[in-house]
Write a structure and sequence with these properties.
It contains eleven helices and four strands, in the order H-H-H-H-H-H-H-H-E-E-H-E-E-H-H. The chain is mostly helical. It has two domains: about 130 residues, no CATH class; about 110 residues, no CATH class. The chain has a two-stranded antiparallel sheet.
Length: about 260
Amino acid sequence: MKDGQRLWTKEETILAINLYCKIPFGQMHGRNADVIELSILINRTPGSVARKLGNLASLDPKLKQRGIGGLPNTSKLDKEVWAEYMYDWDTEFFDGEQLLAQKLETTIEKRYNIDLENLPDIQGKEKERLVKSRVNQSIFRKIVLSNYNNRCCITGIQIPELLVASHISPWSYDKQNQLNPKNGLSLNTLHDRAFDQHLISITEDLKIIISPKFKKYADVLSVKQNFIDYDGQSIIAPQKFDPGPSFLKIHNERFWAKNSLISD
């Protein structure tokens, strides 16, 4: 370690991983406003934070798959905190957001505009569940949309107001993977609804499949353009976290179960 440098603490590393998961890979540089904000909070230079994000990128299996190596010299602490996040997304991300709120000298409720004053009857564990649910939904949206560079993975639409962070395995069904970015797809509102109703699905090799039901409306231009034309096409590849095969398998099974009785 060079003179004047100091080792990264666990708190700082947690905040770096928290940021790593929330911004696209191409924006992990010292000019990024989020990178600058974190550098101020932890009293480091934007360049130092950007290098740490590059170190973390070297641990990301998706980037390795894409031939992107990240920066070398990851520390033992980097690997330990990374492993903790990969093992327990829900706990680690919420704790990371609480830590970030503390560094910003605010509360997590204020940071996420959660107004509990108008809900006086909510106390204790019920209050904790409400806060965590609201925060988790917001975090999940940011992570998933960032993973697809803020565009729909089917159509490429890049209008934020029309995008949804869609759970592959539903929020209420799989409570252990509510924040797992591998359980998320960035979809526009139309295709999110179709995915939720099992009118479309994504295969384990990331191909789009559509319900036979759409064939009855093949002469309707909007149906053809929005659904039929995408059948068999690949989704837009995520930047960091591939959809989990186990999540996709479950959705595929439900898709075929629901569509098996529809005639050609």
